[in-house]
């Protein structure tokens, strides 16, 4: 495992998560299904220069992934209880988008503000990195990712049970 910044080490220690940078896939980061590991795409740099400031990439992604994963779990359970069935692909897409929009992105944005990172500049950097990594080829995707590409729909993800 690669060395981590003190900020991410502290957050991991407080939340019991680990970071794995040995996999790739059509995403910058995702959580394991059990929520214990955050996979950061191995093709991402460890840090980014955002308006002249060095930013720990895993730290920013951690602020997004953990709250999103928790909400995904809550929404999946709620769906199963209320509908008395497993979600289909369309349901999974809606569940993912809800967790992403309501918890992932807002928490990442709040973290950026807290540590003094310009959200628009960070978002632009992320879009540039995503455009490079989403094309693949993918040789070592995690087997237990909490999201997956939705078949026949480029660049979209869905929750995994």
Characterization of the model:
The protein has 161 residues and is an alpha+beta fold. The protein has one domain (6-159). The chain is 49% helix and 15% strand. The protein contains 4 helices and 7 strands; from the N terminus they run H-E-E-E-E-E-H-H-H-E-E. The protein has helices at residues 6-15, 57-83, 89-115, 119-133; strands at residues 18-20, 29-31, 37-40, 47-50, 53-56, 147-149, 157-159. The strands form 3 sheets. It has a 3-stranded mixed β-sheet, with helices on one face. A hairpin with a 5-residue loop joins strand 2 (29-31) and strand 3 (37-40). Helix 2 runs antiparallel to helix 3 (89-115). The radius of gyration is 15 Å and the shape is globular.
In short:
The protein is of the alpha+beta class and 161 residues long. It has four helices and seven strands. It has a three-stranded mixed β-sheet with strand order 1-3-2, covered by helices on one side. It has a two-stranded antiparallel sheet with strand order 4-5.
